[in-house]
Every structure is written in structure tokens, then in C-alpha cells.
Design a protein that fits this description.
Layout (H helix, E strand, L loop, with lengths): L10 E6 L18 E7 L21 E17 L2 E14 L4 E6 L11 E5 L12 H9 L8 H8 L6 H16 L4 E3 L2 H13 L10 E4 L2 E4 L4 E9 L4 E2 L4 H5 L3 E3 L8 E2 L4 E5 L7 E11 L6 E4 L6 E6 L2 E11 L6 E8 L4 E8 L5 E5 L2 E5 L3 E8 L5 E7 L5 E7 L5 H11 L17 E2 L19 H7 L5 E5 L9
Parallel strand pairs: 3-26, 9-18
Antiparallel strand pairs: 1-2, 1-24, 2-21, 3-4, 3-6, 3-7, 4-5, 5-17, 6-16, 8-10, 10-14, 11-13, 12-14, 15-18, 15-27, 16-17, 19-20, 20-23, 21-22, 24-25
Helix pairs in contact: 1-3, 2-4, 3-4
Length: about 475
Amino acid sequence: MCQSVLPEGNCVFSVFSRAGRRRRGAARLAAATLMSGLVVAGAISGTGPAFADDGTKEPGGASATIGGLETYGAAVIHDGGQDEQVSAGLFRMTVEGGGMLQTYCIDIHNPTQTDAKYQETPWSGTSLSGNADAGRIRWILQNSYPQVNDLAALARKAGAGSLTEQDAAAGTQVAIWRYSDKADVDAVSPAAEKLADYLHKSAEGLAEPGASLTLSPGAVSGRPGERLGPVTVHTNADAVSVTPPAEAAADGVTVVDKDGKPVTAAADGSQIFFDVPEDASAGSAALTVQASTTVPVGRAFTSETRSQTQILAGSSESMVSATATANWAKAGAVPALSARKNCAKSGVDITAVNQGDKPFTFTLMGEEYTTAAGASRTVTIPLQEDQAYDFTIKGPHGFEKRLRGVLDCRTVADAAAASADDGLTTQTTTQPSPASVGGTGAGQDLAETGSSNATPVIAGIAIVLVLIGGASVFLVRKKKTPTDGE
């Protein structure tokens, strides 16, 4: 990771990306290495010592670790005249802070990495972006196992005779793959195949579910003496509580509502502000909101590693969180930076909002962009499919923002179509990457589209006791760094 500093407070926003390559069961675009500089010009002393986030929490919601396939059966993928038998069914994920999730995968040829970390993600940041049938997948999830646990009733609707849990999980996964990956796939069990056909034919389009918890926007900025915000809470939880720590109160920075009253509780739609004293020097703070709730069925989960995308089929009461940051300074450009994966544009969007009195200018991959005082602008960092990225955006006075993950926006069918459109020739194979099988069910020798037999990582008992059943919001005030000349 490179960094350099220009004279008179100018700086380089260093951007480094690690490219990766993953073999899949059909055409995929090869990953390429990206390295470029993000050069910033102008006085941006407004970015005081900042919260150095790790880039994984900004979208908000549940963070979880994937375990193995929990309940599954067998399926057969038909591709290019060849058949490949794989496992198909439900995964189990352990939520950080407490809670369990059940998921199906929506990327049939991509393996799952053992103990991979996942984050709740909007459909726009996954291969569901632009998929006209994404809403049908949500319908399948809501109308099949495990949301419908009366297997006798489900079997009658499907004309399947009788269904075991393994049949129900396999049939549901097969129906999902037909829409998520446009795959030619059948369940091995006749009962599971009947269920898959019923779900596939009956599915109706539904809207994308809302996030379990987000803060919007993820970053704000302004002048000391102002209320920085608003930061709006979006959640399906009944309420969250707000408890700023003594350290922030000692520095005079508080969390308030639109009337300037200290916030002790918040709900969906609540607006929260950072109240910064007028005599505060350039600085920053981070606001983290946590709540206990069930994650909506149909929410997607992506990993910062090369591990297949998941979609939620069921949730226990789980801990969810979201983070927003604030930057302030008395003069100059005062940018607030946020980022989001944009699969429609095959890249990562970086949004700069400048609440200062001078322009905020940077050069990205040979192109110069300027955000005027009081304005905002979004630019996209283009990435290759399957490319791992690790961007650290640095500014003066300790400003630092890290973004990392893997651009995993295309299924096999998408990549093949793109290759055909571009006139590219790619290597193909019909065999999904194998992995060890975990959980319960038949087919221990099957090729695996992802999972492991590792025991799920469970949060510490002390953390669970502190967090379950309650929610907290806390503000972390970072140590000030002297500005140039101080």
C-alpha cells in the first residue's frame, strides 16, 4: 500500500488492488491487477484525524461467519452435454454478537470458503443486480422451506407425495439456481424435483426487502458549531438505544436529534446529528448503531473473500449494526467519503460530499474530478469480475478510509453472455470447485458448490449477554492530530 504527501497540505489518496482469479464451472472473465493513484489537490485541512474504518461495515446490517451445509440433498447440473452431481441445500451462518442465519447460495459454480466472513448487502452489490427474476427468488424463499416448515402441506401443493427436510432444501435450492444462475439443473430425488418444478413455475416477482439496519448517509461533514447530519436510521427493529460514551461527552461532541436534544432512543426514520462545539479543532468521530432483530428473508450476503454469494432463507433474533462517520474543520474543503459496490457499472462507487468553502479535487486513474464547495459527486472505480480489491484512501491529518472486498457481480450465464458480446474466448469447465461437505444429508461424495464441515464460530458468551435483547449506539471520538503549523 503506497502513500505520499504533496506540499502545502496536498496529498495522495493511495489506491491498491489485489487481483485474483477463480475457476468456475463455465465462462468467467479473468481477473486483472489494478493499481492507480488518487491524487487530491486543494486545501483539505477539514479532514481531521478520522475514524479508520475497515470498509466492511458501511452498508450496515448483519455480519456473519459461514459454517457448513446444514440440510441438503443432491442435484445434477447439465452443461455442454455433461452432467455434474453437486450438493444442494441450506447453509448455516453465525452472526457476530449473537444469532443464526440459514441461507441458500445464488452462485452455483463458485465454492464457499471455510469460515468466510459475510456482510448483509443490497441486491445492487451482487449478481442479482439487473436480474429481472430476483423478485421470484424472494417469493420462493418465502413460500418454501424453512419458512414453510409444514412439509406435508408443502408436498401437497407441489404434488410431491412426501418430502423430507433434505428433499425440501434441495428442491428449494434447485428452483433458486434456475433463476439466480439461469442453470439447467435438476434435483436427484423425485420428490425434491417435483418441489423445484412447482416453485419455479409458481414464483411471482416481489420487491427487494429492506435492510435490517442502515444509516444514511454513511458519512457527513461540516463546520464546528454546527449539527452535522442528518444521519437517518433505517431498520426493521422496533427501536435502538443511544448511549454516547463519556470520552465523547468530555470533548463536547454529542449525538442529538433535529431539535438539539440528546438522543436516548431511535427508531426507523429517526434523524441523528453530530453536535460539534464551535471551538472544536479539526477532527472526526464515528457513530455505530446496533440493534437486535430478525433479518428480512431475501437479503443477500457477500464475502470480502472469494466465497459464493448467499441469500437469506431464515433468521433467528440477531445482532445487526451500521456505522456513520463525521468530519469537521473551520476552513477549506471538508469532504465526507462513502463507498458502495455497483454491479450495474462493474465497479465501486466512491461518493465525495464537500461541505467546505473550497473545491475538493482528485485524480482517479488519469481522470481529474472536482467536487465544488457545498456539492457532491460520485465516481466509479472500474474492476474486473472476480477482482479482489483493497483500497486505502488517505488524506492529511490522519484521514484514512479503507475499502476491501471482491467484485462478484456475474453468474456463469452473465459472464458467458458478456464474453460473447465482447467477442472474447474463455476457458470453460462443467465441474464446480469441490469442497468438503458438512451438516446432515446424503451425498457425502458429491462435488460441492461450497461449504465445509467446520463447526460454526459462535460469539463469546459475555458478548451475547451484553448485546442480546438490547441495542446500543455509541460515538467514538478519535485523538486530535495537530494541523500543519500548530
